[in-house]
Each structure stands twice: as structure tokens, then as C-alpha cells.
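so my prof wants the structure for this chain in the C-alpha cells format not the other one, which i didnt know existed until like an hour ago. anyway here's the sequence
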Amino acid sequence: MDDRKQILCMKWGTMYGPDYVNCLYGMISRNLSYPFRLFCMTDHTEGIRSEVECLPLPQLGFEVPPGAPGKWPKQALWNRDLFGLKGAALFLDLDSVIVGSLDGYFEYGSPEDVITARNWIKPWQRGAQTSVFRFQIGSHPYMLEDLQADPLLCVKYQFEQNYVTNHLRGGVRFWPAAWTKHFRRHCMGSWPLRYLHPPRLPAGCKIVTFPGSPKPPDAIAGRWTENNSARPPEEHFKWALSQPAGKQRKKALHRYVQPCDWVKENWKP
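here's what i got, hopefully its the right format
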């Protein structure tokens, strides 16, 4: 019997290069005391390190209708047969930075639980945030089958994590709040403070997720996206004020991040 821990990630299209997968493997290897296997389900295997076990992208079995902006390919993970894999698996988004021990993500709760981070934007709704979640492979096949029967559920729920929150029988459980944090929301602080200090790592945090922008390479460089220039605080502030008044200037003022050393220390192969 193979008792190695199973970790899954997905990479489709060209938004994320192989460096994201390679860094994820490196971070797992430095922060998990258990033997493990990392499976990358992808349509582009080029450049991925040999230790990662690449699998094809699992098929949804339906077309996502227009008007559903979420990352719906992740719902294929609920397939009744996921390439013959069995048992508990931890799913990680590629734009995750692991900064502490992952052991608890395998030890917390019951093996039968579906455990996610709690949605940080509207925490009072007790919604799932599926950047980091653990589940039993093949134990909830109706999650995919119901979408196949009625793809308009994607439009109803908009985002796949809303679907998981409301459709999973028995509901989800949540990791301890300190474990999983949102880079922009929990590390950068409000926009004036971003000019005064670099992003801070919250106490007790184990994984920092990077929904939207900036991504880990941008946080390291001190830029909002790879298409933006990295500037010292004073220069960026002056540049932002030079932008046309209104939404464009407001966005320019808010979209600032200083180079982040702790991301650089952790996000590497």
C-alpha cells in the first residue's frame, strides 16, 4: 500500500509557466515531513521537473456557458474516477506560497471531510475558498455529474467556490483561520500603508494565496503585474498622481507593492 500523501495541482493554458509547478514542488518538499506525490494535471508538460507526476487535464464533460467567470475546470476533480487515484488529496492552486509546515493540512479533521479555507471577502457567509482544499477522491461524484446534467448551475453560482459551498452534501469544514491567508488582503495592508512597508507575513500562517494580482514573481520584484514597472514608493506615488483623474488614478494609487523578501525566500524550486 502506498502511504505517500497526495497533492494535486492543475495547470491549463499559458497563464502559468512550469516555474510555478517546479516552485510548488520545492516548497512542498521543504515543508512536509511526510513522503508525498505531487500530481500536476495539465495540457502543457514542457519544463516541469521530473519529480512531478504529470497527468492529463480531467475532462468536465460539458461546456461552461457564457457568464460563468469562475475556474470551473477545477470541478473535474470531483470525477468518480480520477485517473485511478484513491484516498485523501490536498489540492493547491499554483499561485500559492508555502511558508510553514503542511503536516496539519493532512492531519486536521476527519479523513472524510472536505476542508477549505474560509472565503475572506465575505466571511460572514461561511463560504468556501478553494485555493487550498482537501477531499476524498471519488467521494462526491454528484458534484460533477450535477453540472454535467445542468451546466447553467455555473451561471447560477458564478464562481466554483460558491458552488462547492452550496452544493456539497454535508457542507465544508474550514482550516484554522491563521493557516491560509490572502496576500493582497492580509499581507499588504490598506493602500496607504503599502507605501510605508513591504508586505508582512501573518503570525501562524502556513500558506499564502495570490488570487488576482500581484502574483509571487511580482511580489518579489515589487510590481503589480509583469507589465508594470517596479518603482520606489515616492516615484510610484508621483507617477500615480500623474494619471488621469478618476478610476485610472485611483487604481494606480492602490496598485502598489514593495519587494517582498519572504516571498523570495520561499517561492523557489
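also thought this was worth mentioning. The two ends are 29 Å apart (CA to CA).
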